[in-house]
Amino acid sequence: MTPIQIVKNSDIDFGNFATNGRAGTVVLGADNTGARMSSPNISLPNGAGVAKAAGFTVTGEGNAAYSITLPSSGVLIYNGVANMVVDAFTCSASKVLAGGKEIIYLGATVHAGAAQAHGTYSSLGSGIEVSVNYN
Fold first, then answer.
1. Dist. CA 55–CA 9, nearest whole Å
2. Is the distance from CB of 76 to CB of 21 less than 8 angstroms?
3. What is the C-alpha separation between 97 and 134, in angstroms, rounded?
4. What is the pLDDT of residues 88-133, one digit of tens each?
5. H or E stretch including 127?
């Protein structure tokens, strides 16, 4: 059997957003459109920052079924002075390697505090870990 493999194509990016003085969330869908929704306390500026789900390519034995393991707890992201939690991961995987390959997308929710510091946030260490295995 061909070994199963997952390769990251792109990182998750929630795009630009701001709080209105209260905590809130931004939910990024698990697709290639960058669609996102926010709680009432978060504004999503038009045309500012490009939101996108993380993208991966899974390869292996043609038409084989597989399972995917997403993070079970939140991942901290930092801007050097402040942090936010990313959790509630979702995935677009059909979990079948039609033709030996599937491109999948990973979405999630980011939690912003009431006075969230501005800046570019990224993970430290290994970041968001995703694994695949044959069923």
1. 5
2. no
3. 10
4. 999 999 999 999 999 999 999 999 999 999 999 998 777 889 999 9
5. none
